[in-house]
Write a structure and sequence with these properties.
With about 475 residues, the protein is α/β, with parallel strands linked by helices. The chain is about 35% helix and about 20% strand. It has 16 helices and 15 strands. The strands form three sheets. Strands 10, 11, 12, 13, 14 and 15 form a six-stranded mixed β-sheet that branches. A five-stranded parallel β-sheet has the order 2-3-4-1-5, covered by helices on one side. A four-stranded mixed β-sheet has the order 7-6-8-9. Helix 9 packs antiparallel against helix 10. The longest helix has 19 residues.
């Protein structure tokens, strides 16, 4: 199955200023497969080491001279390593985290040998060895589960994918394309983006078999909790993971994780699961200026899971000979799935390098309720995103947020065909506001940032309604 990151990896490999690459991502998202495919497609001989399976391999890296290290690896593997024609892959490097500091020597003294390091719990190693990491001499790349575009490509839906790629604001999408894309998106919502589940679905496996794969994957994640040695009790981590699934779409409240879990344990557990990339935090932003991360509060957090398939496994969504129709699911569950899928799409469209994609939301503090599901930066401006699990729904919070923050553009994700319109509305507080609303169905959310950057700047008019005159005494 072709992955979008394959192109990024090929660009990295051919770059004249190539640095050793650290590939970050959760277990089972396809990191090892991608590097093996990169070696095969580029005609390079893969030199693969797995430090979990063979901890003794770390002995070859005791020195700091990369040429000596390559010689030791040749002895260890029993074959000659031709630097100019090879690709060195250090898999599960978190089991030998101290080796991360050695990557600098390859960048400086043996640049002809491309080096990739990866691991399922790599973030723990990066945290433990932060002070010794070779800053500026190592590149980072993030790998997420398969997005909807990759899902379509895996299923041979290239023509439909081309149609979705070609849509731009101000043009129409045919009813046939909308219906077919909605049908496939609902299937993606049930299968998810973990490569094993997608491969099973492509191969014709029954929906119940896909669900079984998703449950097996969650069992693997729980088994990994034992590797968080000294960081958190396995049972507490399990409760926190379950709580993330229950709280999708709402603020994560530490006190509600489980009766026997203290708030400081819940907070630490959530941070550990985020470090392992089993979930992703959605942080509160005041959204008064850019960057969005400049005004955050850690007391306000939401969270999504790694993949919607993990949600189905934890929530117990049924599947037999067929997947359930979205309309048969409980409304709260449909809303949770919409939040999960939108969050995944935004992460896939986010920054692939550095610290990786970040997610933000906004909610009113005190007084009347109000929340914006996601807030993003696109085209140098702040854009709020409103999610609707169906085709209709009020947007009171969105209207007021746009007025209060003096914004120009907003995005709505629902089940209607894509469209763009200029709204002129009066908020519940009596404020008149005019702004551009881009509406896209869930199946186009993976293009959200790109599409928002194409939206021009509208001519805005704003008027706060005058307060009622005071009665004369």
């Amino acid at each position: 199955m072709e992955r979008a990151r394959s192109l990024d990896l090929r660009r990295w490999l051919s770059s004249p200023g190539r640095r050793p690459l650290v590939l970050r991502g959760a277990r089972q998202v396809g990191k090892t497969w991608l590097i093996r495919e990169l070696a095969r497609d580029s005609g390079r001989e893969l030199v693969e080491l797995n430090f979990e399976r063979d901890p003794r391999a770390a002995r070859a890296f005791e020195g700091n001279d990369p040429r000596v290290i390559v010689g030791e690896l040749s002895l260890l593997l029993g074959r000659e390593i031709a630097v100019e024609r090879s690709l060195l892959f250090l898999d599960e490097i978190q089991a030998a985290g101290a080796l991360l500091a050695k990557l600098r020597w390859f960048a400086e003294e043996l640049p002809a040998l491309p080096v990739v390091a990866a691991g399922s719990l790599l973030e723990f190693a990066l945290s433990d060895h932060a002070l010794s990491m070779p800053v500026g001499r190592v590149a980072f790349m993030h790998l997420e589960p398969m997005g909807f575009d990759e899902f379509l490509r895996a299923h041979g839906q290239a023509r439909l994918l081309d149609v979705l790629r070609a849509w731009s604001p101000g043009t129409s999408l045919s009813p046939t394309a909308h219906a077919r894309a909605t049908e496939w998106f609902h299937r993606h919502a049930m299968v998810g983006g973990m490569p094993a589940a997608v491969a099973a679905d492509v191969g014709g496996a029954a929906p119940r078999a896909c669900r079984e794969l998703q449950r097996d994957l969650v069992a693997t994640f729980r088994a990994d909790f034992a590797k968080y040695a000294g960081r958190m009790d396995r049972e507490v981590l399990g409760h926190v993971l379950d709580a993330v699934a229950r709280s999708l779409g709402r603020k994560f409240v530490y006190a509600r994780v489980d009766e026997g879990v203290k708030q400081h344990q819940a907070k630490r557990g959530l941070e550990l699961l985020a470090a392992a990339r089993l979930c992703h935090l959605i942080r509160y932003t005041a959204a008064t200026g850019l960057p969005l991360g400049g005004e955050v509060k850690d007391t306000f957090r939401k969270a999504i899971l790694l993949d919607v398939g993990v949600f189905h496994a934890l929530a117990g969504t049924p599947a037999g000979e067929r997947f359930p129709s979205m309309n048969t699911l409980a409304p709260p569950v449909r809303g949770q799935i919409a939040e999960q899928l939108a969050g995944q799409a935004l992460r896939s469209a986010g920054e692939a390098t550095g610290d990786g994609p970040q997610l933000f939301y906004w909610q009113r503090e005190g007084g009347r309720p109000g929340e914006i599901d996601f807030v993003v930066q696109a085209g140098g401006r702040i854009v709020p995103i409103e999610l609707k699990a169906g085709a209709a729904g009020a947007m009171k919070s969105l209207h007021q947020f746009v007025f209060d923050k003096r914004l120009e553009v907003a995005l709505r994700v629902d089940e209607n065909p894509p469209s763009i319109t200029t709204l002129e509305v009066t908020t519940t507080q009596g404020d008149d506001v005019r702004y551009v609303l881009l509406s896209v169905p869930g199946y186009l959310a993976w293009r959200a940032i790109e599409l928002l950057e194409r939206v021009g700047r509208p001519q805005l008019t704003r008027r706060r309604s005058p307060a009622p005159a005071r009665p004369r005494r």
